[in-house]
Amino acid sequence: xxxxxxxxxxxxxxxxxxxxxxxxxxxxxxxxxxxxxxxxxxxxxxxxxxxxxxxxxxxxxxxxxxxxxxxxxxxxxxxxxxxxxxxxxxxxxxxxxxxxxxxxxxxxxxxxxxxxxxxxxxxxxxxxxxxxxxxxxxxxxxxxxxxxxxxxxxxxxxxxxxxxxxxxxxxxxxxxxxxxxxxxxxxxxxxxxxxxxxxxxxxxxxxxxxxxxxxxxxxxxxxxxxxxxxxxxxxxxxxxxxxxxxxxxxxxxxxxxxxxxxxxxxxxxxxxxxxxxxxxxxxxxxxxxxxxxxxxxxxxxxxxxxxxxxxxxx
Length: 314
Hints:
Radius of gyration: 21 Å
Largest sheet: 8 strands, mixed
Structural class: alpha/beta
């Protein structure tokens, strides 16, 4: 089964929660009036699209309906799909770290799939021929080193770690030295997943940023926030907290295969202007892939894979 087919399968619950509601609104209304927009608004918000994003989408839909002189709801469902797609586009320049010697700082609360995502990223880029080093800077969580060590072995990449409870900064310092001396293409840093409070989180992350800037100034820095797709609006709140504490440049959205709240992917990108760069739809190494807005929306609305017919999407 290809990734698009797995994505369609993963979006089954979200499709039932969001898309069937949207389709119901278009089927039930014969006129485009305020009742139509009110019902559509209710479905989008309940589908975890978010209030602000829903307002943006509906404003865009109103404009397109006026411009195209559309009178029937049935005629504008594709306009809504296109508006959702427009909220989520990620251009190739957002993956600059792939073209340079880079440091990926991976952040997020415990339990969202952070360490697993790091392992999958390591496998992905090792298989693309890059030299990857992992840094176990989550020194507070019991067994965090062991979990990352297992992934480093599976991926066949080097791991820099310290003792449990050690200063995360010392691990990052050692990892920067190793990345420079060993000619690494990509240094991926696991960080503590505790949101003890924003001030402590901010101070800790800034300390790590300063070490990287001082010890590895030539490296391109990327900070990816891992969010659990099953948590809906809670993920949006986590995003808000981390955006205040870190230089977040992208999102890894995990566990979409178990979620009815996949609409949160739209809300995150629209409300914060931070792109979802990777999505996870399962436990296998190949189940973490680059985000593609066309694939995501086509899978969500049960449309064929882009560039393929209905019988070719497997």
